[in-house]
Every structure is written in structure tokens, then in C-alpha cells.
């Protein structure tokens, strides 16, 4: 692939005491592309994301952002790079409206008072730029939103601050068919706007539908990174469950080095 990754992890190792969870993991995110991060329960997806988020300290390995090595010592470092993470539990406050949620902790002010008009306009513009039309009013309480609308607001919040990379942890878990459709469309639009998008998902249909690349973790090791268009559902399942990519016709190492 000619294009440079916007974010690249190289040789990441992470242990919790005697438990070695991540083994020399390489992972790359490209601008304008969706990269799925897949793996069975316990494969190490959340640990990798938390290392990137600055929640866990990386034992060894390197992180590069826009080609330069960076050192992530805490969540602020990740946010300062323009890397946002939307966790599965969403962390939206039910008792606040959409604008208040989107600006929570980063409120715009005019002098000493909140600049409600500007925040409202920016919230509306951001939703419009993502072609989100399902939300009636940005002054709606989040408690009144459907699961899909909540996910949409959480994703829109993550791109408010000129983010360059967005990681989405199971964004379609627990959503119905129509809501899943809306969220997958939104995931694709983020990439089409030039962001590097990481999709963590157990749903292989979702993965194959919106992803450009698929990185599979198996027992804390990168089994392979493949082009989504080159694989089918059962081949990804094979990577996830056995760590091998035999039916793709490449060894895991070859798949990693030759297809991305
Ligand atoms: N704080 C911790 N202390 C010890 N072991 C941990 C810790 N966090 C995770 N692990 C172990 O690391 C391994 C990877 O867990 P992780 O949560 O990263 O997997 P995952 O791929 O995100 O799984 P899931 O799909 O179930 O969320 C598991 O074996 C888990 O028990």
C-alpha cells in the first residue's frame, strides 16, 4: 500500500503481572479507511485499545502518529493527537441533552458564561456534516434517544474536535437492523471524510460491509492483516479461531506484509 498509516503501532507488548497479554502486535490505521480489529473474547482487542488510549502503559513497542514516534503517557496525550475512542458503554449522560453531552468537559464559553448558541450551532453542524438526520432536536435529552441515535451522538461527539482517528468499540452491539444500518453508514462516512477509523466488532457481516482492512488478533498475537475485499466471512472466522489464514492462501506473516 502506497499510503502511509496515520497511526501505527509496532511490536506492542503488554503484560499484567505474569500474564503476557499482547505479544509483538503491529497494527496500522490509514486515513480514509476503516480498519476492523477482530478477535475472539480475550484475544487482546480491549487491551490494545486501552494501551493506545493511555489507560494502560505499554511495556515495549512503538507508536507512530503521522510518521513521528509519539509517547502516550495518559488519555490526554491520545486526545491531543486527535485520536478519539468511543467505548461500547457510550458514557453519555442520560439527564443531559445532546449539546450538553457533546460538549461535556469541553464547554465553549463567552467570558465566564457558557456559549450555548455556539455550542448548539456546532453540534447541529457536526451532525449535519455526518448526514445524521434521525435526531429531531439537539436539545433533546439523551434519555429520549434510541440506541442507534445514542451511538450516533457518541460518534458525532468524537469528531467534534477535528479528530483524525476514531476507534469504535462494538458500535452496533445491541442495535436492531435499521439502527445498525444507520451506524454502519455513519462509520463509512467518517472514513470517506478522511478520518482513520478503527472498528472493533464481533459481527463479521458488519466488518465485511464497511471495512477496507481487517486485523485479526489471536491469543494476543496479530494473526494477520488482510484486505477485506480479499476475504470472506469464513476466512476471517478461521483467522479468529485458529490464528491461521491457510484458506486465504497466505501464511499469516505473508498476509500481513503483502496485502496492506
Ligand atoms: N487488568 C488485567 N489483568 C490481568 N489480565 C487481564 C487484564 N485485562 C485483560 N486481561 C487479560 O488479557 C486478555 C485479553 O483481554 P481483552 O479484554 O483485551 O480481550 P478482548 O479481545 O477485548 O476480549 P472481548 O472481546 O471479550 O472484549 C484476557 O485473557 C484477559 O483475561
From TrEMBL:
InterPro entries: AAA+_ATPase, ABC_carbohydrate_import_ATPase, ABC_transporter-like_ATP-bd, P-loop_NTPase. PROSITE patterns: ABC_TRANSPORTER_2. SUPFAM superfamilies: P-loop containing nucleoside triphosphate hydrolases (SSF52540). Gene3D superfamilies: P-loop containing nucleotide triphosphate hydrolases. Keywords: ATP-binding, Nucleotide-binding. GO terms for molecular function: ATP binding; ATP hydrolysis activity. Residues 7-244 form the ABC transporter domain. CDD domains: ABC_Carb_Monos_I. This is D-xylose transport system ATP-binding protein.
